[in-house]
Amino acid sequence: MDIDAANQTAVEQMMSARPMLTGLAPAREVIPGMKDNLILHAGPPIEWGRMSGPLRGGVIGALLFERLAKDEQAAIRLVEAGEVEFAPCHHHQTVGPMAGVTSASMEVYVIENRTQGNRAFSTLNEGYGKVLRYGAYSPDVLKKLHWMNDSLAGVLKAALAASDGIDLRALLAEALHMGDEGHNRNKAASLLYLKLLAPLVARVAQDSALEAEVLQFLGDNALSVLNPVMAACKAMADAGHGVEGSTVVTAMARNGTDFGIRVSGLEEAWFTAPAGIPQGLYFPGFTSEDANPDIGDSTITETAGIGGFAMAAAPAIVSFVSGTPQDALNATLEMYEITVAEHRHFTIPALDFRGTPTGIDIRKVVELGITPRINTGIAHKESGVGQVGAGLVRPPKEIFEQALIAYAEKYAL
Fold first, then answer.
1. Which of 189, 196, 236, 267 is the most buried (most CB within 10 A)?
2. What is the separation of C-alpha 294 from the centre of its chain, rounded to a whole number of angstroms?
């Protein structure tokens, strides 16, 4: 078994992937296996009884959004009666930030990998504050979601239909040269996204007031591009999945209770352990006592070679997640130790345009004892409170050890 050759194949397929944002559609129409009573969530598989506060809140909010329940208690009764099914977003070519909930009628971005032909999906980003992805489901949260689904998505759908699609790999490559890292700092990428969308929106909008509202909403949200970027990273990572003999990680994800990974050469198996609480900066009035364990699918960015792996490109990120610019540089340099390649398209000016570290190798993680660096938002442990800070976290080392043991058993090493 030539493991190194298999890993080069997996990473080459990840790097050659060209994810294009081509449109939007209701989840039930495009996400494989989507059903009206199915709620997709972030992270590895989990049942209702083990869900954290933010994820439970997200589920309740999704059921209210779908009008499958009239209030919180009715939603809980529906779940406890077994009328609602759950599955990881990752099992359905989808990713979602934080709670990550996706339900059947939600409009989702459609990302097409023009190189290998696979697709990926994500919901629209709600912005900051009290939002569904942090488990909020009050009337104002639901009102905003319905506006996004009915008005915002309609305009974006028409705008993208009038284009050849948006090349998200190219957008990310440019944003890395403008101080972003693609996970928690997306200020440049979101402005690039707005620049590309604005003329299309102006061309198709039938109502000038709605046009202004849409552009204002996108412009005010420094995370507007995060969700399609996550789906782009999912499309890239999936392009490297399923390579026989490869020890490259193709998914890292958290559901607020467990942290899980999947490995290219180990089919669809998850390797999980309890998620940790990020270390970082808390908003005024909050401490680590308020924090929920790590949650969300956004670690797909690190899996694809950006986010915490590209912090050297974004020294200003430390004002949000803690640390110094030198810490950001060191974070990236450390990740070269556990990865297979340097990305051809994602480069870092501060490192003489060296490619970002790409393709986490479980062998190197276990051998060196170095786990991936992740920067992340911190959710309150109770549903609906929202984000209480941001910081840095690492996956539990034992999940890489579990994966390596399973690899040795499968390939009789």
1. 236
2. 13
